[in-house]
Design brief:
With about 80 residues, the protein is an alpha+beta fold. Helix content is about 45%, strand content about 20%.
Length: about 80
């Protein structure tokens, strides 16, 4: 997955995250397809090797095989 796709996904997720926060909801999980999850893990390899959880946009990344690579779900 190219950084362009990841960037577009993150832009959309950031917008959705801000709307949730405006409603007083805070996201605990950022659910993505396994393909996106693997891309995030590759980008954060050093942090994962140091025992840190995979976090993006302040939420734990959880792979969800029901999601397409261009889809995501934010779970409060």
């Amino acid at each position: 997955m190219s950084e362009i796709w990841i960037g577009a996904l993150l832009d959309r997720a950031s917008e959705a995250l801000l709307k949730l926060e405006e409603d007083g909801l805070f996201v605990s999980q950022f659910r993505v397809s396994p393909r996106v999850g693997a891309s995030f893990a590759a980008l954060r390899r050093g942090e994962l090797e140091n025992g840190l959880p995979l976090m993006v946009l302040g939420a734990e990344v959880v792979e969800d095989p029901a999601l397409a690579p261009d889809e995501f779900a934010l779970v409060p």
